[in-house]
Amino acid sequence: MPRAVVLLSGGLDSYTAAAAVRSEGFALYALTVAYGQRHAVEVRAARAVASALGVVEHREVPLDLAAFGGSALVGDGAVPKDRRLDDGAIPSTYVPARNTVFLSLALAWAEAVGAADLVIGVNALDYSGYPDCRPEFIAAFEHLANLATRAGVEGRHFTVHTPLLALSKAEIIRLGLTLSLDYGLTHSCYDPGAAGEPCHRCDSCRLRARGFEEAGVADPLISRAG
């Protein structure tokens, strides 16, 4: 089976992207980055998701982006709540260069294990305005991967898979349900409570809620909590 390194956050999108690529016959190597995010519940969810996916290997890499600051997700200011999701502004939850850093780590591991495929669950429709979720960024990184690695120079062609790029959140959820995914394992909230419960007011919570509503199904994470 061909190998693919998937960036696995424990969220709904990365879980679905990984499962979609797995359904195409790839063996998954999951990479989770503990980047100094506000709560460890995200990493715990990634472990549960990796187990459910039956990945070949799951690596957790500590990389403290909180040392640089610049984002509410690493404790630099409050997480915005109840803001307009279509105002076009890049929110304070943007983590500087996060997807560039994460994909670079995935590329390094892929080159080491002989994989030519990287997977990331970015989405250019129902997202919070992050510049590193756009197709232009993905195309540029793929070009870089083939230019800047020994494997690329020697003829291995790296591909960055983004199976969710053009899907709405509702379409992502419907895809996941066709793949029999348990979304009760996932975590989406940017600012969870002490026990990991979602705030229901941050961008990510609201996008998730809208997606399940438009998909016409109940969110198992909320159902179980109730």
Overall description:
This protein is of the alpha/beta class and 226 residues long. The chain has a single domain, classed as Rossmann fold (3-Layer(aba) Sandwich). Helices cover 38% and strands 11% of the residues. The chain has eight helices and five strands, in the order βαβαβαβααβααα. Strands 3-2-1-4-5 form a five-stranded parallel sheet, with helices on both faces. α1 links the parallel β1 and β2.
Quick structural summary:
The protein has 226 residues and is of the alpha/beta class. The chain has one domain (3-225): Rossmann fold (3-Layer(aba) Sandwich), CATH 3.40.50.620.
What does the secondary structure layout of this molecule look like, with pairings?
Blueprint: E1 3-7, H1 12-22, E2 27-34, H2 41-53, E3 57-62, H3 98-113, E4 117-119, H4 135-147, H5 150-153, E5 159-161, H6 169-178, H7 203-215, H8 220-225
Parallel strand pairs: 1-2, 1-4, 2-3, 4-5
Helix pairs in contact: 1-2, 1-6, 6-7
